[in-house]
Amino acid sequence: MATPILGHSRWLVAVGPGLLEAEAHGRVMLRGTLWLLLLLLLLGPPSPPGTQGHRGATSLEQEAEEQDPWLGVQRLREQLKTIGSLSRRYWATFSCTVWPDHCEDQEAPTPPLGWSLPLWGRRALDSFTEWFCRFQDCCTGGRHCRISNNFTGLESDLRVRLHGQHLASKLVPRAVRGYLEMPQVDKALALSFHGWSGTGKNFVARMLAENLYRDGMRSDCVKMFISTFHFPHTKHVDMYKEELRWQMQETWRRCHQSMFIFDEAEKLHPGLLELLGPHLEPRVPEAQDMEPPRPIFLFLSNLGGSVISKEVLSLLKAGWSREEITMQHLEAPLQAEIMKSTDSGFGSSRLVKENLIDFFVPFLPLEYHHVQLCVRDAFLSQDLLYTEEALDEIAKMMTYVPEGERRFSSQGCKSISQRINLFLS
């Protein structure tokens, strides 16, 4: 039975280990066929009845080769070398069009001086690619090909790699997938992550980038701003506004699906928050035949962390299990805490007051066994062996609150790597 491969639309009649073998065999056959075509391309169109310069050059070369046959052999070798180099460039161009996920693994060979893909050759290659793509889906959308939207991978990552955040694990992928699969959108998607430091807000933002874009956080479609790093001085806010406006416009120009991450959102200057307001407002839908832009805004903040921890502790003491806590328990107190905060302009901004934020996502405080899982993950990421005793010992290095109960890690899983280094030294 034919089996589809995720990320490509080619079909292979193989299963298990034979799948890769069939794919490789198919590529070898295709490459051989393409090389024959490329050799024909490289021969080029027949030259018109030659110009004087061309005939003169040819006659001189022939005369020299008659006097020294070895020159003819060298010339043939150089021509074959040049043909091989240029053929590889044709193959790389074709391969990157059809299989863009392998494109970054290829380094196109540098052609000899003076050689490039001639216009007639590019046109012929385009015609061949168009013919080939009639039989399978090809990536022909330029930068759009770098958008993967791997929702299955996102859900798996959140389930396996994120610890203690059952609310975020369910809400975030559901909101993002629903937004990106909607036929028409009339506003940007805005998610605001709230909770103590080290509970996974940045981690989730990075997982979103990794699964929505092939290049992850390095994607041209993803921009991350840290308030205290990118916008540190109040006196330069006008300059920051211009820079932020330009960055957003350039990203929208390149990407119909973009992501903007604002870390330490509670420290954003009110002028910058005001600048973002119009971009989160509802807008008139684009024409039916145009692809609507789909920007995603993520705001990461410690704001509201204390009230989330207070509510969670109260529910746990009342006999609720952690997994029984729902958004209904936390949504109202979290939003009230954000709006009444006097230390930040975020709660009093139009983003909050005019309901431009679609979801406020609470990140719960982490407990001792969650910290142990983070320690285990850190060992595995460094290819280090570990024991249960080591996990326990390192988890005990963290500070837990409240003072008498030691229920929650005050730093979440932050600084785990440093504690492992301390443990191993």
Fold and architecture overview:
With 425 residues, this protein is an alpha/beta fold. It has helices at residues 18-43, 52-67, 69-98, 119-132, 151-161, 166-180, 201-212, 227-230, 237-254, 270-280, 305-317, 327-340, 350-353, 368-381, 388-395, 416-424; strands spanning 3-4, 11-12, 189-194, 222-226, 259-263, 296-301, 359-362, 400-401, 408-409. Helix 2 (52-67) packs across helix 3 and helix 5 (151-161) runs antiparallel to helix 6 (166-180).
Major β-sheet, in short? 5 strands, parallel
Mean pLDDT level: 80
Parts with pLDDT < 50 across at least 5 consecutive residues: 1-23, 45-58, 104-118
| Content-based structural category | alpha/beta
What series of H and E elements makes up the topology?
Answer: EEHHHHHHEHEHHEHEHHHEHHEEH
Concise structural overview:
The chain is an alpha/beta fold. The protein has 16 helices and nine strands.
Topology summary:
Elements: E1 3-4, E2 11-12, H1 18-43, H2 52-67, H3 69-98, H4 119-132, H5 151-161, H6 166-180, E3 189-194, H7 201-212, E4 222-226, H8 227-230, H9 237-254, E5 259-263, H10 270-280, E6 296-301, H11 305-317, H12 327-340, H13 350-353, E7 359-362, H14 368-381, H15 388-395, E8 400-401, E9 408-409, H16 416-424
Parallel strand pairs: 3-6, 3-7, 4-5, 5-6
Antiparallel strand pairs: 1-2, 8-9
Helix pairs in contact: 1-3, 2-3, 3-4, 5-6, 5-7, 11-12, 14-15, 15-16
